[in-house]
Write a structure and sequence with these properties.
The protein is mostly helical and 479 residues long. It has 20 helices and four strands. It is globular, with a radius of gyration of 21 Å. The protein starts with a helix and ends with a helix. It is a multi-pass membrane protein.
């Protein structure tokens, strides 16, 4: 397993080097590397957890277990879907090169068990994601990319200082060093990861970045990249029980904030991007179930972003007046139902497993968040639709159907990870939550026009919010 893990980590770098020498085969190699990751994750599920010490005296190590495998499988399936989606487009080998470098860096985060390795991987992710966001080379794309890169680098600066403080305390970079570390170290590391992952108010950079990126890049960012900030927090919460309540508290707050933020959006991509903030809260609120929920969210969100990019308009009010292609609508409905936790989809099993892991008050708060999720995804479910117009000059390409076919299949098959969720009590409860959400949407939200001020998303305010978050984290750690 050790040799296999090292070879698998090195594979994206080898693919990138070979693809640079032979650009014509770059997309084939990228697709093969993504599929190899899916195979590694599947094999990892059958193996007992193991730890690989790389630099023992510094605490540099890798850890592979079921939590890692859920995240790796999510990354593999979403990356494969994005490559298939782009297969018939004019994307250059450079795009596939950056995609597979991003894929490998994200995988590295998912098996790291120390702060320094995570730092290096997150920095590479920041550069690769910037190059993908700025890929169209338009002024708007370059500005959005630079905004993301600058915000990411500031977050990583806080994180690095916290990491050094942990090392000063224990002479080790291992996650377990968080136990007994100075409060300022915990606050700085948490701030860096919360900001990088787009969690709570420090993640308000996320809606603009994800909404303004190209469709396949949006799917990658929301499907897997933002989870690289959440994963180390989950791992720390499972290893160091003292920080678990902080992670759960931020999970609840993030789930509610994201729903409130997305509820009144009328731009389809901004709704999906803001919803990602809420879904990160679901991933964090129950660390032991976070991997399964990450898989459910990644598959559904990637399918929704890929479909939103093929709609005739981003404005939901305009789409309510102009019926969309029924086939695209069906994909939207299946992705939305899974996000809402409808039975038969993986989202149902993931939500039940998450709620099962919580105590009374967190369960109550997350049920409210679940109603909010049902309300905002009703915006897509109740869109008017009609069969495709034969005179439509822009039929959807085959790559889209291959990509969404893979993701939708995952939404059904993924139920097998927790089929125990299918009890009459759970089904009735979830259907009641969704029914209440749809009723509120039809009676109230659909007729209520309110535009959320975007002032908090301005660049200088994002940096200011980071400072406020640092004060809040200091207070929480000291309390």
């Amino acid at each position: 397993m050790n040799t296999l893990t090292i070879a698998w980590i090195a594979l994206p770098l080898i693919v990138g080097f070979v693809g640079y020498l032979f650009p014509r085969v770059m997309r084939y190699l990228s697709l093969g590397a993504a599929i190899a990751s899916a195979g590694y994750a599947a094999f990892g599920f059958t193996q007992p957890p193991f730890t690989l010490e790389l630099l023992d005296s510094f605490g540099i190590s890798l850890q592979v277990d079921s939590l890692s495998c859920f995240f790796i499988l999510t990354n593999a399936l979403v990356t494969t879907a994005v490559i298939l989606y782009c297969w018939q487009t004019s994307k250059t080998p450079f795009f596939y090169l950056q995609t597979i470098i991003l894929h490998g860096s994200v995988n590295t985060v998912f098996i790291c068990a120390d702060f320094m390795s995570v730092y290096v991987a997150l920095e590479v992710i920041g550069i690769a994601a910037f190059l993908l966001v700025a890929y169209p080379r338009s002024d708007r794309a370059i500005w959005v990319g630079l905004r993301y890169l600058f915000t990411s680098n500031i977050a990583m600066l806080f994180y690095l200082v916290g990491t050094i403080l942990v090392y000063q305390s224990h002479h080790s970079f291992a996650f377990t060093g968080l136990r007994g570390a100075p409060p300022e170290a915990i606050a700085l590391i948490f701030l860096g990861l919360l900001s990088k992952g787009g969690i709570f108010v420090s993640g308000l950079w996320l809606p603009l970045t994800h909404a303004e990126s190209e469709t396949p890049v949006s799917a990658l960012l929301s499907g897997v990249v933002i989870k690289t900030g959440a994963f180390p927090l989950l791992r720390c919460a499972l290893m160091v029980e003292e920080v678990a309540p902080i992670v759960t508290l931020f999970g609840i707050a993030t789930a509610l904030l994201g729903v409130c933020y997305a509820l009144f959006e009328q731009d389809s991509k901004r709704v999906l991007a803001s919803s990602s903030i809420s879904q990160l809260g679901w991933i964090m609120v129950a660390p032991a179930a976070g991997g399964f929920y990450a898989l459910a969210h990644g598959l559904a969100k990637a399918a929704l972003f890929l479909t939103a990019g093929n709609l005739p308009s981003r404005n939901l009010k305009e789409l309510e007046q102009k019926p969309i292609n029924t086939k695209l609508w069906l994909v939207l409905v299946m992705g939305s139902l899974s996000m809402s936790g409808f039975p038969l989809f993986i989202g149902f099993s993931a939500k039940i497993l998450t709620l099962k892991s919580l105590t009374f008050w967190p369960t109550l708060a997350m049920n409210i968040a679940a109603i909010g999720t049902a309300i905002l995804y009703a915006k897509f479910i109740f869109l008017p639709h009609q069969p495709q117009d034969p005179k439509d000059p822009s039929p959807v390409k085959l790559g889209y159907w291959l990509a969404t076919g893979l993701l939708i299949a995952g939404l059904f098959i993924g139920n097998g990870f927790y089929y125990e969720a299918y009890t009459l009590e759970n089904i009735v409860k979830v259907l009641a939550i969704i029914g209440v959400g749809w009723l509120i949407h039809r009676v109230l939200i659909q007729h209520f026009a309110f535009k959320i001020p975007l002032i908090l998303e301005e660049f200088d305010h994002i940096i200011g919010v980071m400072s406020l978050m640092l004060v809040l984290l200091f207070w929480m750690v000291l309390a």
